[in-house]
Amino acid sequence: MQAPEADSESLTARPQTAERARDATRRFLAAVAPASMPEVDAVLLVVSELVTNALRHAGEVTRFRLEARPGTVTVSVDDPSRAAPCALPRDVERPGGFGWHLVRSLSAEVQVRVRPGGKTVSAVLPLPQ
């Protein structure tokens, strides 16, 4: 774990499955937020989608980070692909393709930073204290 900044808590890991990322997120959120809030479910869904996308489209997660600040939590997932996520046309007849829409609708802010060696996708979600 990296040293937290003032008024923040953070966790850095390298999960190999979405399930492990969700487990780490549950433990992290239990330490920084009340247990049964709808916002916690939203964070877990975004974690699952971002980690699953990195594994499916880039082959691995090179870094997973959670950072809680007053009123928000930021989920960041690094992977080795430089291709930015894109929203697929919504088609209820086709399975899948709704994850990026969900991430964007549940998050207050989403950023994709392409860098040498891959990209970082970050989502900021509300998290009352």
UniProtKB/TrEMBL annotation:
What SUPFAM superfamilies is this protein classified in? ATPase domain of HSP90 chaperone/DNA topoisomerase II/histidine kinase
InterPro entries per record = Anti-sigma-factor_SerPK, HATPase_C_sf, HATPase_dom
Keyword line: ATP-binding, Kinase, Nucleotide-binding, Serine/threonine-protein kinase, Transferase
Gene3D superfamilies to which the protein is assigned, alphabetical:
Histidine kinase-like ATPase, C-terminal domain (3.30.565.10)
- Region Disordered: list its residue ranges: 1-22
Question: What CDD domains would the database entry show?
Answer: HATPase_RsbW-like (cd16936)
Per the UniProt record, one Pfam family is HATPase_c_2
Q: Which GO terms describe its molecular function?
A: ATP binding
| Residue intervals of the Histidine kinase/HSP90-like ATPase domain | 12-123
Instruction: Answer yes or no on keyword Plastid.
Output: no
Record carries keyword Transferase: yes
Protein name as it appears in the record: ATP-binding protein
Q: Which organism is it from?
A: Streptomyces kurssanovii
> What is this organism's lineage?
Bacteria, Bacillati, Actinomycetota, Actinomycetes, Kitasatosporales
